[in-house]
Amino acid sequence: MMLKALIFDLDGVITDTAHLHFLAWKSVAAELGIAIDERMNHALKGISRMASLERILQFGGKATTFSETQKIVIATRKNERYVALLSSLGPDAILPGIAPLLAELKKRGIKAGLASASLNAPRILASLNLLDAFDFCADASRITHPKPHPEIFLAACTGLGVVPEECIGVEDAQAGIDAINVCGMLSIGIGASLNNAGLLLSSTEELTWARIAGLLDYTDKATAVNR
Question: Among this protein's residues, is 139 annotated catalytic?
């Protein structure tokens, strides 16, 4: 395999803003008379803003209470609170191992792409001082189908000028791993409870070039044996 690009999810891979999403959703949900906890927060991992709202309303028994227009207003309110919380982010919020890996990719001429459902992804990268580290960031506002549909990863490939078979995708959510696998990319999972990842790591600290090279070597040998 000729590796030309790594395509990353954002939350839980580059940085962790899940707690900020939770605080914003928790305050908005409370105003709707719905109490959410960390278990619900985990269930919202990797899905879009509107899909998250639908899950919260379903959980609170209010799935049919609001019109589509009202839902958009609620989701916008959540995002405004989330954006306000983003002001606390800085380079120190980059997860362990990510900055050195991005520098190594740049040195090796391997492109870095972002495939995040977050509409705030460019703003977050700017807060982390990582905009220049990425060659392309897929525009979540143009994505019709959420993960596990592969659309956003395919969009990242197109933007990077590569094909999926030349890429590795990195995710911390099962929906993301499924999307990567459907694409035909190699997948790397971050976290203990993921299935079907080509390589499963317990944390981003383990996401080193040596581990990636090992995955490529293993894949090449497995392919040769199966021929």
Answer: no
